[in-house]
Design brief:
Elements lengths: L2 H10 L27 H6 L2 H14 L1 H14 L6 E3 L12 H14 L2 H4 L7 H15 L2 E6 L11 E5 L10 E2 L6 E3 L2 E3 L5 E7 L18 E5 L3 E4 L18 H23 E6 L17 E2 L2 E2 L7 E5 L17 H16 L3 H5 L7 H41 L20 E3 L8 H13 L5 H9 L3 H17 L5 E2 L37 E2 L7 E2 L12 E2 L2
Parallel strand pairs: 10-13
Antiparallel strand pairs: 1-14, 2-3, 2-9, 4-5, 5-6, 6-7, 7-8, 11-12, 15-16, 17-18
Helix pairs in contact: 3-4, 4-7, 8-9
Length: 551
Amino acid sequence: MGIRTWLRSRLASAAPGRRMFDAAKWNRFTTDFLAPNTSADAELRGSLKVLRNRSRALVRDNPYARQAKRTTQINVIGARGIQMQPQVLRANSQEKDERRNNALLAAWNSWCRPDSCDVTGRLSFHGIEMSIVGALPESGEVGIRLVRQAMGRSRVPLSLELIEADQIDDDWTGYSDRAGHYWRMGVELNEWGRPTRYAILRKHPGDSDLSTYTDGTQKHIFVDAADFIHVFIPERIGQNRGIPWFASVITTSWNLGKYEEAHWTRKRVQANSLGWIQTPEPETFGSVESDGSPALEGDKRLWNTEPGSYNFLLPGEVAMPPDFGPDDGQYEAVVRNLARRFAAGYGCSYETLSRDFSESNYSSSRLSILEDRDHWRVIQSVLIQQVHQRIFEEWLSAAALAALPMPLFNDVFVRPERYTTPHWQARAWSWVDPAKEMKAMELARTLQLQTHAEQIMEYTGNDFNSTISTIAKENEIKQRLGLGAVTQPEPSSPVAAPEPSDDVDDNDEENSPRPAAPQRSTPLYLEGDNSTPILLRNDLSDAAKPLSRAT
């Protein structure tokens, strides 16, 4: 047997643990890298309460955590919330049924008032949206109980009760009284792992005045999954409870806060005392007891130093102020680095978190903002799927039975797909550079990469039909008042192609003259409008193209 054959046989018969990834090896460099093999729920069960409490403490005391929560609410929900736009079509047609759509929207907006949709009567549907998004960074989850009862002035037997994560009993784990079901941290699951019930504490466990059940009431109420929306974004397969979004940045935030506290304490101590005075009169000592003796703590003198003060010494005493040494000048760099770690762990850019654009230019700022917006859009999509669509379908069923005019909605239960596919328009964002992005939008329409309707909804958050109708009405009013007379500008002269030179090779593509660009149809401008004029199509060839703004 040759040496190579022997070596191959030895390697093939080697123990499986001998050949492994470097990251999986145990050596002197990895002995403190502990990574137990636990399921998602097992990993959460012992940590969830601490994570929630520390996350809330960060929001209370840490400016970066507070800003992260605030910017998430603003960017995901915004000032108007995620708006429902009905898309009911006429029977056997692809045209929208404006009568039904308007009635449906009016009924929905009426129910979204605080006295109707919220059991407490405090929050509008927009306020409920803001509370849900605000709870996710701190708690990782939130519960919404569907209460089948009309509230306030509403006739729709449906209202919403927000349930904080703490009230879903983390300790309620074990076998269920239903065959094949089991409880996992307050969530009852069937044999497929599908939630069937939730164990909700009647009182918040952190309420010091109401945490005991001395009145004989049952500790829990059990809510069917059909009446409960459990909002969270799973990070692992088999995960049944939400993880606070601050979980990975809690330690970084704590270190950042302590570092800033130490830095400013040092600066304060350095600037606090102007000097020391030695005097032969003991009654003038700075810190004394009621009998005039020096204030002591053990064998140490106590001094009450105040900004801009002089301190007195006992006769014969010599002051030894602490030597702080020179400032290393790394404070801003360290704070910026920790803030970047915080932003990366949370899921937003450093500029968005800190409001610091001192090291950014247009390109880098735009890239950061666009990446943040993609992140916000993912959260919006999750909310629409988990919350908005579910609540709308529940509301539609309740409203069709109790409140909506039946002649208009007599086929809600026969053809539910006609009504249950609205468009949910999330908030839009303003342009980073309006001039550049308007040109990009026009080019996208020219190349048929995007429609005018898509751009209106994306950049303004408004409905296309309503926007176009409003524009048409405005133009009609302008023309009636003589402010928007339509005029036809002189057509621009065509650009003549350059004549080829005698020195140019006919086979040289690089130097050959390019054909003149095709001319656009002559636009029609609206006079009297200080804004960018609307480009109106004036020939049949452009009739099928989307409207655009004239450059």
